Amino acid sequence: MVRTPSRDVEEGLLEAAEQILAEGGPAALTVRKVATCAGVAPMGIYNRFNGKQGLLEALFIRGFQELRTMVAAANGPDAIHRLREGCLKYREFAVQHPEQYALMFNHMHEIEPTEAALLEAFASFDQLAQNVAAARQLRALGTGSDVDVAQQIWSALHGAVSLEMSGMMFTDDPAGSYSQMLDALLAGLEQVAQEQ
Question: What is the rounded distance in angstroms from the CA atom of residue 131 to the CA atom of residue 68?
């Protein structure tokens, strides 16, 4: 009999948890359901994640890692285009993984993330700040530090995406509306910088 490597078991548990999360949201996640879906004894979750809380935190971390990877992978002919593309990737992540997005931003009180988990979350913001810094080498955008401008951009993106995820959209073209909002935001930041 060949034992499954521990890393493969953990990956299987996380994939099962993501599937259950996508189908039923955080409330549907139970140790027993995840274990059954992964074909593992419930004790396997306690051994590897210390129970449901650890599993939720692992999903929280995994979500932010994937978000950061998507934003970092944005391409384009220059840093301005990559900043814009990264902002589009933010919405793409949320649309493709609505329950994961909700877990990351709407259920932190249930997860009670550790400092290590929060550092993973902050790293995704750092990626945006790096994209902003690179873009500002080509064009003046906003005032203040790169972090200040990144915070302004993220606030707008998160607000727009959160409204869409909650069903509070009145346009027939959410993607087009988001893209236009992004263009107006970047143009506004450029205008503010020129007026200083």
Answer: 11
- Euclidean distance between CA atoms 54 and 60, whole angstroms: 10
CA of 67: how far to CAs of 39, 48, 87, 91, in Å? 28, 24, 11, 10
Q: Which residue has tokens 């027993």?
A: 32
Q: Which two tokens stand for residue 13?
A: 């548990």
Q: What is the DSSP letter of 114?
A: -
3-state secondary structure of 1: coil
Beta carbons within 8 Å of 29's beta carbon, 6+ residues apart: 17, 20, 21, 52, 55, 56
Quick one: 4 exposed, middle or buried, by C-beta within 10 A (0-12, 13-18, 19+)? exposed
| Predicted confidence (pLDDT) per residue in 48-68, tens digit | 999 999 999 999 999 999 999
Q: Which two tokens stand for residue 144?
A: 């203040």
**pLDDT, tens digit (0-9, with 9 covering 90-100), for 143-163:** 999 999 999 999 999 999 999
Structure tokens at 70: 């998507």
Distances (CA, A) of 133 to 28, 59, 193: 40, 29, 14
pLDDT at residue 2 in the model: 38
